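Please check this one:

***
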Amino acid sequence: QELRPKSLDIKQEELGDMVEKEMASTSEAIEDAVRRIEEMMSQARNESSGVKLEVNERILNSCTDLMKAIRLLVLTSTNLQKEIVESGRGAATTQEFYAKNSRWTEGLISASKAVGWGATQLVESADRVVLHTGKYEELIVCSHEIAASTAQLVAASKVKAEKSSRNLIRLQECSRNVNEMAANVVASTKSGQEQIEEKDTMDFSGMSLIKLKKEEMETQVKVLELEKRLEGERVRLGELRKQHYALAGSYDTAEDGETKPSPAPRRGILKKPPLAQKP
């Protein structure tokens, strides 16, 4: 609801001002996101080390690259919009052009808001991941959201742009770069998650004696449960083999009553003595 432009509450002459305000607001949000990521990087270096520091740095670096790509995208989009307005407004003012093309203008405002909102959400998710209070999946979802809102902004800008426009070509290149950087965030997040989870399962260095004893007892319980389950499965396998041998023996008896020798099971695989031949 927040991303939807409230066109009914806005006079048409104000639409032009809103476009400029939203694009400026989006640029400001991205600049703020870059600063926050730099602060997180500094904090991570002070408060973490080893594998966790390596993972945090890799994720934050990929987020920084994505923010830089978005910043260039917004700048190029702003230049393209100015070009569209200048070439299409004729003798009309900028505000009149935006008012005349109000539906396109509203789409542009909505797309710009979506890009800025996605960037803010990405930074907040990255902050929680670095502080170990958030989920890696949040970063992945935010990256997909940014790619989608970028496509929305390009589509909105492309509607009224000349096909031969250099700014349009640059904008499409920026869009591809944003998608690539978003994919890098997803890849670094997934690999970092695997590294952290693998380390956490076997890292006992920070545990107290009581905590170690408790973990040891819980692990013993799991081992006993697994051993019981394994024994049950072995019994089940034995019963399955008995039934298999019984059916195989019945099948080996010919219809005319002549008994055929049942093939002996191979040693080392079935580990069961062959059943006695039926009379």
